[in-house]
Write the structure tokens for this entry.
Amino acid sequence: MAFNMVASHAVWPMENDAIFGLAAKAKEAIDKYGKENVIDSTLGALVDDDGNLICLDTVYSELKSLPNAAIAAYAQVAGQADFLEAVQDACFKEYRPKAYIKAVATPGGTGAVRHSIWNYTEPGDSILVCDWFWSPYVTISEEFGRTVTNYEFFNDKGEFNITSFKEKFESLIDRQKRLVTVLNTPANNPTGYSLSDEEWDEVLDIAKEKAKDPDNKIIFMVDVAYIDYADKDRRKFFAKFSNLPENILILIAYSMSKGYTMYGMRSGAIIGVSSNEEIAKEFYYTCMHANRANWSNGTRGAMSVMTSIAKDPAKRKAYEEEVAKYRTMLKKRANAFVKSAEECGLKILPYRDGFFVSIPCNNAKQLSDELIKEKLFVVALKKGLRFAVCAVSEDKCKIAPAKIKEVMDRYK
Amino acid sequence: MAFNMVASHAVWPMENDAIFGLAAKAKEAIDKYGKENVIDSTLGALVDDDGNLICLDTVYSELKSLPNAAIAAYAQVAGQADFLEAVQDACFKEYRPKAYIKAVATPGGTGAVRHSIWNYTEPGDSILVCDWFWSPYVTISEEFGRTVTNYEFFNDKGEFNITSFKEKFESLIDRQKRLVTVLNTPANNPTGYSLSDEEWDEVLDIAKEKAKDPDNKIIFMVDVAYIDYADKDRRKFFAKFSNLPENILILIAYSMSKGYTMYGMRSGAIIGVSSNEEIAKEFYYTCMHANRANWSNGTRGAMSVMTSIAKDPAKRKAYEEEVAKYRTMLKKRANAFVKSAEECGLKILPYRDGFFVSIPCNNAKQLSDELIKEKLFVVALKKGLRFAVCAVSEDKCKIAPAKIKEVMDRYK
């Protein structure tokens, strides 16, 4: 091509999404060899033991029984008022922080991450993200002319690396005076790690120290996409967001994709938590403007489903029981994987909750390619392999670690 | 507030959407005085004579009969392959241009407009829009640090003002060497105007002249949000996008909001049309990157509905007949409004197709406020009033012009 029609900031490699590509290959293998002979651990969606996407009955029977107008009508730009209440309850449950809190509807968690980075950083700023991360954090940052700085998520003992966090956090805030830090916890994608309450205290103490300089603007983007599959007490950290200094703002990316199995409905929210009423208000109007300027308003039917379920105690109970059933299923699968890994000596990162387990290695792409020959499909990351326990039956979770170990040993 | 937490480019007035606010007032009046006594012409959605939102049966019976997984699953980042074919057919029908054409799914037409402005202009650029415009064009431009330049849509004779278009187009392209021009036609919001085929020729001739300079990059964003309510031959202009110079790129914002009454489902597409295969490819990958970085992927259920209907001749026929029924209803209402306006001497802009009629005046806000007292709710624009025939029965469309004229005369 002799020239670009797109503007200088909008030239990108002409490539397709790697994970979707791998998932397509896995599907081909299933068609060829039969699903009993293939382990497809690619996509981050909950799948039953027969390989079918799990769609919560309580959610879809509600969606399909809504009056058409509750799906068809435009939502308010910021989201329906009752949804914006319900989504805060769904997120915080009994651990709502004592603070000024506002919410704005977004398409999934992605919309919330996007709003955080666009609205709370200056062009050229660097965003702080750990070195085991969901790759769209980088895509989003780069799209808007921002960069990403990584700290090491784990130290040599396999514990949360507070030293690395502190070093990078302090050098970035000193240089930029404004910093968005992404924390994808609990049930981190791709590792399944969840910060403990003590680790949260350490993180917030470091931030509070830096908040003593009133020129510093400290923003935490807490991505809780997988929170509904974490243990109940994994929400306790929310209460720590009470009474923070005014120049620490908490943004929470809440997604209906996983907790409501509504991946394709594109619904979620960004929730802003501040000790200062005006900062919370500014958050609301800035995100509303960004909504109008990017996608206009959110998916009304998904909002209707959440509020209908929230308002009806019987529906709510049924929904929560259905989620709990799959949370248990997921836990069994993950336990099986972790136990087998231990037995065969496969080193994995500390798993706590959620859809994924990660296996550190230096040659992830090579191993992923080799594992395809073994009919095991696993996503290659920069620092290792991501195994999606959400997508693989307990039986297969038991046998997968030994297969991975065997191929790793072959390429040592 | 002593300081902003948001970045400097993300500070916006703390205000709610004016149209939604007026719609809420109209609803209050209906509750108080009864719907037969109120004319609510605020929202741009098709409403039946009883004031209920029209939700196409053929669309919602299809949505509700889809397997849950066809709603629940993530869509591909660029959109499902069969949807991207179907949406081109839905847009062009028999007037598909001979060119390289690619489509990418977006949340409604807004997502497509947003991608056009973000990807095809440089920071600080000005976008060309006529002076009767959908206000989010400005919201979107400002969000991204772009400005809007207006040309006059109509000359003194009430015809399309090609002289004003030419003057502004040429001065902007000479200065910027890159220009995104928005054309919201057919069935313009807010005027109901549709460019004739001859007017399209004049516009394209002006562009082709400027395209002789190979350094000029000329982009037309054609917003066809209301096209399914325009006459059949209003699609003819699409064929003019065949064999354009390589430095003229056509982007089309197609929305499922109106044609499928799926406002709240947030589905549409941006369609790129170029004589150069590489430019079309660049368009596709740039918009795919922007999808990933803003909302990840589109609403799967809406895509499923469009493709299911497109693939089944009986469903397609039923859908088209249902739309045609409402197109006729709309035409009757608009004809009633235009005829009454003529009879009472209310000056309106030339209406051709679509949801709205506009009434030019200098004191729109004052008139809109006064009309509220008459229980007539109509949106105030900078240059006049917007009356939504889509939302008002034929009987009320007959009586509204005289009411408006009366109040206008009072404040002359």
